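Illustration 12: UDP-N-acetylmuramoyl-tripeptide--D-alanyl-D-alanine ligase.
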Amino acid sequence: MTIEQLYDIYRQYPSAQTDTRKLKAGDIFFALKGPNFNGNQFALAALEAGSAYAVVDEAPVTPDSRIIVVDDVLTTLQQLAKYHRQQFNIPFIAITGSNGKTTTKELVYTVLSAGYKTYTTQGNLNNHIGIPLTILSVKYDAEMAVIEMGANHLKEIASYCEYTLPTHGIITNCGKAHLEGFGSLEGVRKGKGELFDYLRAHNGTAFVMWDYDYLQTMSAGIPVVVKYGTGGAADVRGTVQQSEPFLTVSIDKGANIPAIQTQLVGSYNLPNVLVAVTTGKFFKVPDEKIKKAIEDYIPSNSRSQLIEKNGNKFILDAYNANPTSMKAAIENFAGIHAQHKVLMLGGMAELGQESLQEHEAIIALIKQHPWKAVVLVGGDFVKIDHPFIKMANATEAADWFKSQQFNDTYFLIKGSRSMQMEKVLG
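Figure caption equivalent — predicted structure in token form:
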């Protein structure tokens, strides 16, 4: 069966699914397989559950006219996504970076939705499976699409661009993340920069944080560069007006928005707000709609959330962590005016040979500020001698927290996803 023939089926049943637990009647089930699972084994069950068709690369013993056999299911899913993408002549905005991808994606989506029918990545579906599923979720009434791209090794972003075909792009930043896969900070820049390479080669537009010299260099040669930042060269310029308890941003160039009172914690979210304003202005969303969209956005999924509970305040930023984001979060927290502050930090994953050194650098930073208590949990934090409280995992940390009976205390809870530091709050 050709991709064109499969696309004709998709047009009749425009919903793709790879997880039998999430199947809805009329879905096309793509039977993916990996080291520890084989979706082919669930193809018939998927049909019984209401799937219109099942795409497999291992023909079942029991034949069924609704079974479509292909050479490789994942490749077919990606090819189908590309074919669907090619039916649109609208902006496809790709977002990648070491930190802030999802918050930026949500803010940009929220702003553009104030002016256009916009589709975006749901949750964290930002990999080789999630991106094609996201593209296939874009309906024919779309006027904009915002696609998040995660990566932990070279050539990954380049491969996503081959079927996303982005027209516009944002690299939030390049920090010390996934060093195990990228090898070095230079490797991170090269890997994330594959998005800009694609835009450069395909007459694209880049939104660039002009405060970062390396992004200025990486974006050189892209036909259209729209600059945002805190300096005079930026097309859209803004500054932090206030950061407690929530971030308030003032835009003094490129838009008439004196104050945006966000529901985000941390001045490190300034670039995320600025690029949302910038994309909104570029696509002619009115200033008042940009302001309202950003102010109405409430973060979720343990990203820059401020939670008040039992007389205490918690900055829950436990969706992920790397040395760059951890440093920014600690420094922001150190600047908060509160009498009693407690750090509860989980280990940072995927740092390769530099992991111990990077954890030691975080400990050195912690020592520069006064805290009521510091709890370091799991990962390489437990391998290092330090004067702070050590816990093996988040469950132990939660037990410790419950035993302390804190009141009127401010907490920063952060760690890599694998540490599940949100467990501290129960």
